[in-house]
Specification:
alpha+beta, three-stranded antiparallel β-sheet, two-stranded antiparallel ribbon
Length: 113
């Protein structure tokens, strides 16, 4: 952004006007072993458990402007689920679906989301 502004290609006002926050949600899922989760790409892609990222991608593809990240907490036996989508109802649906996937496939503890 700074380079674009320095070169006169874009002002902060024009950049800011083009950006819109999407509805988002952060959830926690209690699991038996948060160590079973490993991420890469600055926590944006799940490496372990094997196959779970593909299932998350399928859920994300059903929502407009959807994306979701899953990462282990650094301090609690929980997995954090971040979701965003084009509308609040879509983000609520995506967050719940990913949280349930994590709970069901990774030994969730307590009440199912």
């Amino acid at each position: 952004l700074c380079i674009l502004m320095e070169n006169g290609h874009q002002t902060f006002s024009s950049w800011s006007a083009a950006y819109t926050d999407l509805p988002n949600k952060l959830a926690k899922v209690k699991v038996a072993d948060r160590g079973a989760f490993e991420t890469e790409d600055v926590d944006r892609r799940l490496v372990r458990p094997a196959g779970m990222q593909g299932k998350i991608n399928e859920l994300v593809s059903k929502q407009s402007k959807g994306r979701s990240f899953v990462r282990p907490s650094g301090t609690e036996d929980v997995v954090r689920v971040y979701a965003e989508a084009g509308t609040q109802s879509e983000v609520d649906e995506l967050s719940l679906a990913v949280a349930r996937l994590v709970f069901d496939e990774a030994g969730g503890i307590g009440d199912r989301p």
